[in-house]
Amino acid sequence: MPPPEHEICARWLELGGRVGMALLAASFAIYASGLLPPLVPAQELTRLWALSVDRYVAATGAPTGWEWARMLAKGDVLNLLGIALLASVTAAACAAIVPALWRDGRRLQAAFAMLQVIVLVIAASGAI
Amino acid sequence: MDWWLWPVVLFAVTFAMGIVAVLAGVGGGVLFVPIVGAFFPFHLDFVRAGGLLLALTGSLAAAPRLLRNGLASLRLALPLALVSSATSIAGAVVGLALPSDALQIALGLLILGIAVLMWRARQSAHPGVAHPDALGLALGMHGSYHDPALGRDVAWAVHRTPAGFAAFGIIGLIAGMFGLGAGWANVPALNLLMGAPLKLAVGTSGFLLLGGAASASWIYLERGAVLPAIVVPSILGVMLGAQVGARLLHRASPRFVRRLVLALLFVAGARALLKGLGL
User: Fold this and answer.
1) Are A9 and B224 an interchain contact pair (Cβ–Cβ within 8 Å)?
2) Which of A17, A124, B56, B149 minimizes the number of CB atoms within 10 Å of its CB?
3) How many CA atoms lie within 13 A of B201 on its CB side?
4) How far is B180 from chain A (nearest CA, A)?
5) A83 in contact with B, Cβ within 8 Å
């Protein structure tokens, strides 16, 4: 029988994965159908996606850091919401198992789970 | 070619890739980056971001089941995932700073190396750890899982834990730099180096991928390297292909699929190398 933190972690990963994928599919449908105007017109994209990311950002004004969060009215940028959610699920799952590990007296493993959350938050912070 | 044809072609190719990946027992990312990088007009920066997100979504789909049936161990994964996710951030930063040609050459060499590793790889179902090391014991890296095939619980422990940490540091760096996911390296490191039973190594690898892929994905996202027109059709293609692959699993010839994957990796690796050398 797997320990209780496995079920807690599995539940968070499952929920986050499903919501993230649904969000991604819905936002891509909005983007592909043209319901919201894209930041980078699709016809130009075929020329621009051969550039390195630095040159692409310079040519298009594509968002860096957390700028995307203020540009969600653009069809292409909207997709980044689902991506960000998928990239956040691991941190949420690790944070969720900390209390169970702590209660069970496994302080070292709780510390590793917490440190994992901190690493992911630093990666997400835009500070690097 | 109209722009919308590219996502359609990408979906078709990644759908086939998803089938082959399941049949061959490899992650989608290790096929996606070399093949799409070699044969599609996208810059490697965007392809590597796509590879990481494929690895992330594939692991998110698999990890809950592996955790529930006890084939992934959080005791084993948490300390190692911490190291690999920290180094994957460094890998992503370095990868995005390197000149494209140098990166193509390194990717070509790496893919050829992975193909050789897969070709020559040995695996050990139950390596047996006679003397678990002090660090592994102190970190609680031991336990047991139920193996339905054997009909009994299998006790496990690890050895060479410091070398394991070093290996996962390097694996994270490479995964972040090249967007390859890391299942191809996680399993041998857990199984052959640290002595974890093969089933536990495969299951735990799925969880280990999550930390590294998520950390590095944030770096690519913040630098503007995530292009939805590339990423979303690829994720959907690989995930649907993987479901078809799982249904074909009992009918496919493992030897044929393995040879197909090796051939694909050799061709894609050689092409990346030639591209980097300007040939």
Assistant:
1) no
2) B149
3) 25
4) 16
5) yes
Nearest beta carbon to residue B232 from set A11, A28, A94 = A28
Across the interface, which of B63, B78, B96 has its CB nearest the CB of A113?
B78
Going by C-alpha positions, the residue among A87, A80, A118 that lies closest to residue A17 is: A87
Q: Which residue of B has its CA nearest to A63?
A: B224
Q: Which domain holds residue B170?
A: 5-277
Does A9 contact B at CB distance below 8 Å? yes
Would you call A90 and B139 a contact, using CB atoms and an 8 Å cutoff?
Answer: no
- Tell if the CB–CB gap between B74 and A6 is shorter than 8 Å: yes
Q: What is the pLDDT along chain A (128 residues), one digit of tens a residue?
A: 788 999 999 999 999 999 999 999 999 999 999 999 999 998 899 999 999 999 999 999 999 999 999 999 999 999 999 999 999 999 999 999 999 999 999 999 999 999 999 999 999 998 88
One-letter amino acid at B50 equals G
Pairing of strands B142-147, B152-157: antiparallel
Q: Is ipTM > 0.90 here?
A: yes
DSSP secondary structure string for all residues of B184-246: HHHHHIIIIIS---HHHHHHHHHHHHHHHHHHHHHHHHHTT---HHHHHHHHHHHHHHHHHHH
Provide, as residue numbers in chain B, all residues whose Cβ is less than 8 Å from the Cβ of A14. Answer: 64
Contacts of B104 in chain A (CB under 8 A): none
Apex B10 CA angle, B5 and B14, nearest 5: 155
Neighboring chain B residues of A126 at a CB cutoff of 8 Å: 222
Contacts of B121 (CB under 8 A, 6+ apart): B188
Q: Hey, is B32 helix, strand or coil?
A: helix
Q: In this structure, are residues A63 and B226 in contact, taking their beta carbons and an 8 Å threshold?
A: no
Q: How far is CA A20 from CA A28, A50, A65, A123, B161, in A?
A: 12, 28, 20, 19, 35
Structure tokens at B69: 């049936």
